[in-house]
Specification:
With 390 residues, the chain is α/β, with parallel strands linked by helices. The protein folds into two domains: 280 residues, P-loop containing nucleotide triphosphate hydrolases (Rossmann fold, 3-Layer(aba) Sandwich), CATH 3.40.50; 76 residues, Orthogonal Bundle (Arc Repressor Mutant, subunit A). Helices cover 40% and strands 13% of the residues. The chain has a nine-stranded mixed β-sheet. Helix 10 crosses helix 12 and helix 11 crosses helix 12. The longest helix has 25 residues.
């Protein structure tokens, strides 16, 4: 392929007003760019289901990330898609602070980013318990049941007093520079990324990971095996191209958004990435800020700098009394289930997960085993003896 001498500027608006964008109805379909035939390319994050973006400095990675995020903001509401943005460089994604789509403010501290990934793993486990409880196979089936009115809600409660359900939004986690995270907490970050990449697709949690250092100590074999879809921008050597794509080609790209898009199954296709300027991003962010006067972030996503995320700390904010109730419920029923705590204690996902993690810290239940209930390690006699001492 021979590049044109005069490069055509492709804006995100050109892609999102195309016929291809009009046919794309999924909230996670984003405008990527145009292929060599001039056809607009839409990317469905739900089918990727996770995306690795790599390339040298100035090759167009950050522009691509901004195009993806802006596409999500233009095509979906906060009820449909929520975002966690990790920006160790502090300058690329800070402009999105204050958006109603965000689960927490933009994460700049690498240790807090590792905590946010741990929170996503727990959210994934709680969503699996929820799907198992109602008999849905994935988030699409769950939301379809919710929309049909098959599930009790706050507006239409269960007459027998059972728990109420909420619609589940997709969650997209964007990591702008993986290298910084791997330098600070490599093992924790790698473990969380792998767990999310292996299991989170069915519950609507998707990863977008970018790095300007495509080497084997950053993009490890474990991460590569679990993040199948790649966007390769121009790199300096064949070795870097092989790390990203498992083949040569990316070293011949000419920069400024020129990329090879390699889906999980299929050959890499050459695409010119779309461009979105800062003024356009500011206008989109300002529009959403006008819609929602006060943004409600989810508590405990980032956790603390020197500890793990909020769900694994010591009991606080009135959790002491609830913790004793949760302990009694789990020990007497012999069932270490987060969804059971949600039903019996009438608490939300995050708080039930926090209580279960506190019970694990105290040795009442064993570690999480995916969607299965945890094993209960304390007997009724031990619990009653502890109550008597208290």
């Amino acid at each position: 392929e021979v590049p044109n001498k005069q490069r055509q500027l492709i804006t995100l608006g050109d892609i999102l007003t195309s016929d291809e964008a009009a046919k794309a109805t999924h909230p996670l379909e984003v405008g990527l760019g145009r292929d060599i035939a001039g056809t607009s390319v839409m990317l469905n994050l739900a089918t990727m289901p996770h995306l690795l973006i790599a390339g040298a400095t100035g090759s167009g990675k950050s522009s691509c990330i901004n195009s993806i995020i802006t596409s999500l903001l233009l095509r979906s509401t906060p009820d449909q898609v929520r975002l966690i943005l990790v920006d160790p460089k502090r300058v690329e994604l800070g402009q999105y602070n204050g958006l109603p789509h965000l689960l927490t403010e933009v994460v700049a501290n690498p240790k807090r980013a590792a905590n946010a990934l741990e929170w996503c793993v727990r959210e994934m486990e709680m969503r699996y318990e929820l799907l198992a409880e109602i008999g849905a196979r994935d988030i699409t089936g769950y939301n379809a049941m919710f929309d049909r009115g098959d599930l009790p809600t706050a507006e239409n409660p269960d007459p027998l007093g059972g728990r109420n359900y909420d619609r589940l939004p997709f969650i997209v986690i964007v990591i702008d520079e993986l290298n910084d995270l791997m330098m600070v907490a490599a093992r924790d970050v790698e473990n969380s990324i792998c767990r999310i990449a292996q299991m989170a697709r069915a519950v609507g949690i998707h990863l977008i990971i970018a790095t300007q250092r495509p080497s084997v100590d950053v993009i490890t074999g474990v991460i590569k095996a679990n993040v199948p879809s790649r966007l390769a921008f121009s790199v300096t050597s064949i070795a870097d191209s092989r790390v990203i794509l498992d083949q040569a080609g990316a070293e011949k790209l000419i920069g400024q958004g020129d990329m090879l898009a390699a889906p999980a199954s299929g050959r890499p296709a050459r695409v010119q990435g779309s461009w979105v300027d800062e003024d356009c991003v500011r206008k989109v962010v300002a529009f959403w800020k006008r819609q929602v006067t006060e943004v409600q972030y989810v508590e405990g996503v980032q956790g603390s700098e020197n500890g793990s995320s909020g769900a694994t700390g010591d009991a606080e904010d009135g959790d002491d009394e609830l913790l004793m109730q949760a302990m009694e419920l789990v020990v007497r029923s012999g069932l270490g289930s987060t969804s059971m705590l949600q039903r019996k204690l009438r608490v939300g996902f995050a708080r039930a997960g926090r209580l279960m993690d506190l019970l694990e810290n105290k040795g009442v239940v064993g570690p999480s085993e995916g969607s299965k209930a945890r094993t209960v390690q304390m007997t009724v006699e031990e619990f009653e003896e502890m109550q008597a001492r208290a």
